[in-house]
Write the structure tokens for this entry.
Amino acid sequence: MRLRNHGLSIFFGALFVLALIGQSVAGLFEYNAEQAAHGASSVTWGQFVTSSEFVVDVAENWQSEYLQFFLFIFATIWLVQKGSPESKKPGDEGLGSDKEQLVRKHARPDSPLWAKVTDWRHTLFSNSLLVVMGAIFLLAWTAQAVAGLVVFNAEQLEHGQSLITLGEYIVSADFWNRTLQNWQSEFLAVGSMIALSIYLRQRGSPESKPVGAPHGESALSAE
């Protein structure tokens, strides 16, 4: 029963681990093929997954995913899309009242402790999801920049060109090509989910309105 209660987390956690392992194995074969083509020695799996070549590919995907969720969570506080289950209904924009949020004097006995207090802990807990999502995005983006610089400079040396600094790399076309090719796909996916869920349904999913709900009604406004 305990596993069943956490099935969604376990399912996606397992998919994540399997996909990451698969990426590392496929990436190792590709990297070693390139090494062989250039007359260089091959590397082991352990060497590859700790290399900048692997880290930059992983980090550039992670940072875009967490940026997507950070912006989506923030935007849904203040912006609405009529008819989308991903949005509050028009007129409900904003942070909500203490009563609606079950905080301070309106907290229930089983509410988290930091929802009941009125000091800095309340402010931090009230924004903790955005804080953590934003922090992970910045850490992953930094990792992408550092690992990407190492990979870029290795290619520069290979071609007999001069090395560049981290500051120069961050404003380079290589860095922003890696960054924006991920950002645009994440923004497209979120926008599509918001728009398509107005008119399309998936019975049984909380990401969809009830099948018989009118197109113009959001999931939160449905009784």
Residues 1-50 form one domain. The chain has a mean pLDDT of 91.
